[in-house]
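Hi all, posting the design record for the shared folder.

TITLE: backbone redesign
STEP: 1 of 1
STRUCTURE INPUT:
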């Protein structure tokens, strides 16, 4: 920590000082060597691809469980698909009007809460990751797994829900603002992905021409048929581990495995 300022770094500032005032302040108060050292090239931990289904079960004494599905196929950042990814997330799992919420909670009464989305990477060497989450009763675990599998791989098509998703995304893009220090961080985040402009502009401009057919084609090509790891937090006495074993390898975790004690 004492040596931190001796490495190359940048200062992010938002406030009332002019550039001249800020430069004077930094020169006076921010002490650094005349020559700064390069930051060591330490690679980020690589996210493991889901090449086989594994079910991780963590014990928790409750009549309700939480389950998350995680899928990483290793796809790297692709700016051309960001508009359809964003609209897919809004349509399929983004709100109370989404397919996931309507199917899992309203129609099938399987969930207290539910969601699903394709998470875009923050850096060029990171992958897209598909994530689902659900909170339900312990005795509805397999109903929830089967229902998620059904709607993810065979996405229900609803013209009214698509229209609502499109309108909602359009309204959000029109009204949200990057202000204060968020401007600097948005600039840095864009650089991390090799972008030279705000990706939201590309999404906003592409949105009017996107159709439900575009989402269906994307779902069939990039979402259907994925391999998942399952993370289940539940009372193990209420879970049929043998039945879970039919989905893939079951790994029962302990608090020592998770927390180290």
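Okay, here is what came back for every position:
SEQUENCE:
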């Amino acid at each position: 920590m004492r040596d931190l300022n001796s490495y190359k770094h940048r200062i992010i500032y938002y406030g009332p000082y002019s550039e001249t005032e800020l430069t004077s302040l930094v020169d006076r108060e921010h002490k650094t060597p005349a020559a700064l050292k390069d930051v060591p090239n330490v690679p980020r931990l690589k996210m493991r691809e889901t090449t086989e289904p594994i079910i991780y079960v963590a014990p928790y004494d409750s009549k309700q469980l939480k389950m998350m599905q995680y899928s990483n196929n290793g796809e790297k950042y692709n700016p051309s698909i960001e508009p359809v990814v964003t609209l897919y997330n809004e349509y399929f799992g983004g709100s109370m009007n989404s397919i996931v919420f309507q199917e899992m909670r309203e129609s099938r009464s399987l969930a207290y809460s539910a969601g699903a989305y394709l998470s875009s990477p923050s850096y060029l060497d990171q992958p897209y990751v598909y994530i689902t989450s659900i909170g339900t009763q312990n005795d509805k675990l397999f109903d929830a797994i089967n229902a998620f599998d059904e709607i993810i791989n065979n996405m229900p098509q609803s013209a009214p829900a698509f229209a609502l998703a499109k309108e909602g995304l359009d309204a959000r893009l029109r009204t949200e603002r990057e202000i204060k220090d968020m401007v600097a961080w948005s600039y840095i985040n864009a650089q991390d992905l090799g972008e030279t402009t705000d990706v939201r502009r590309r999404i906003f401009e592409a949105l009017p021409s996107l159709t439900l057919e575009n989402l269906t084609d994307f779902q069939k090509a990039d979402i259907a048929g994925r391999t998942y790891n399952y993370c289940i937090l539940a009372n193990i006495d209420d879970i049929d581990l043998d039945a879970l074993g039919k989905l893939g390898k079951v790994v029962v975790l302990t608090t020592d495995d998770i927390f180290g004690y």
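COMMENT: The chain is about 40% helix and 15% strand.
Let me know if anyone wants the other runs.
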